[in-house]
Fold this sequence. Notes:
alpha+beta, Nuclear Transport Factor 2, Chain: A, about 45% helix, ribonucleoprotein, mitochondrion, ribosomal protein, NTF2-like_dom_sf, Large ribosomal subunit protein mL45
Amino acid sequence: MSLVRRFQTVRSLLKTAGSRESSSLPFGCWRSYHSSLCHVPEAHGKSAYSRLYEGHSVNTHLLRSTMIAEFLPFMNEKRSATTQVKAPPQLQKTGAVRVSMVSPGFVYEPYALREKISIWRRCFTRSGWRRTKEDFIRELRSAYAIAKLRKTGYSKNTFYIEALELYKQINIQMANGEKKTIRKNVTERMYSALKNEIKQREAMWDGVYWEMVEPVVKIRTLQARLIGIDRTDLKKAFIQLTLEFLTKQKFEAYDAKGNVAAGDKNKEVLVRDIWVFEKSLFHTGAYWRLCGRIKL
Length: 296
């Protein structure tokens, strides 16, 4: 009888130990996870995830990551992963929100130099025929874009005057480090690039002198591209014109003591720049802005 009692005692102890081990597993402590998740937004000094992961093994870490990801969308008042955005009162009445694109944010088919091929190759080889077809399509796209632009009152001479003035303004603003004033003359993506260039220049030199000698040597249009944003409305489009500026410029850079660090303002240097200007064809009061620069 004593042996039977001892056997039953050992058996009950083993059952108790097994139940404790199973309750200590990650799958059996949902209440502890729930209480921890409810206090996630109140964590101070540490991230919510670091608070939850302290004092646990790698397996528990991975499991809690999964459970948090699955549980957060169902939290109501204390969730921090999602936010509710309300439309302005004037738009709530109409029940519609209009989104207007200010700029495509990229240069469509950037201009590149094309390899010159002979007339014999162009006329009597397959590669020449393919190249002729590509060149024809490129020219056709430019012609179509210019035709659409002319319907809005575009004038080549007027645009060249405006583009040259914009070219001068942006270069002067770059030399003076005018980050705020340069913003209205360029697109958002271009503004970020120019702002970084100004920071790099200010880290090297204390000041810069820049001047363009007039008249300019040459201005010409290299290509034109039309970017449509709505297939149902062809009027909603952006135009991009790639221009080549050949000008004489004077440049001089100074260090913190005012000494000349680079360049010479008494010497004229012939500079070739290829800039891409962009304009909306469907926004009221739209104007030309710099959207890209191309280096060949």
